[in-house]
Amino acid sequence: KRTYGPIYDDWLKVLKYKMLYPHTKFSWCIYVTSKYEGTGKGLSYQLTRTLFGPLNCLDVKMDSFSEWFNASWTRCTFALVDEAHGQLTRQGRNLVMNNLKRVITEDTMTIEQKGSEKTVGVESFFFLYVFSNDRTSLDMTADSRRFLVYHDEQAITSQDQKYMERLAPMLQEINMVAVIRQHILDNVDITNF
What we know:
Blueprint: H1 6-20, E1 29-34, H2 41-52, E2 57-59, E3 78-81, H3 90-105, E4 108-112, E5 119-123, E6 127-132, E7 147-152, H4 158-170, H5 174-187
Parallel strand pairs: 1-6, 1-7, 2-3, 3-6
Antiparallel strand pairs: 4-5
């Protein structure tokens, strides 16, 4: 049986915490990479969107982390960067890292008001997940304390991939989503989290 490690335990804890306390601000994010398909990155992304709904989960492109944000950021519980790519230049990756640090740690965000030159500061409470097949999509250093990093280097077996493929369609079934949600609420321990 494949072992996904503590990162998925932390991911489930974040899900439960956000179910119970949606307006809590975390000062860190989860960054998961694996060069292999079928390790559960996409399934994690899909489960988060299914549990919280598409209006509460903002799909973000890596290059959209800039100085100003639009109003869609104000309503989301999760910002999900799926398939982050390391195709930016070194300077571009540094800019993204600096903006990510600010987005993760600051309690407010500057939002551009649509149709106006005005900006406004709004409370920020989303949790950021970054998923990638490319380990170098973000420049991590020893002092990147805002990121819980998990690099899955274990090769995926065909049995593991078939298991993940069977799970994905289940997330479309309302009853299964309710069961998963209840399982998280009943069994995931967030004491001292």
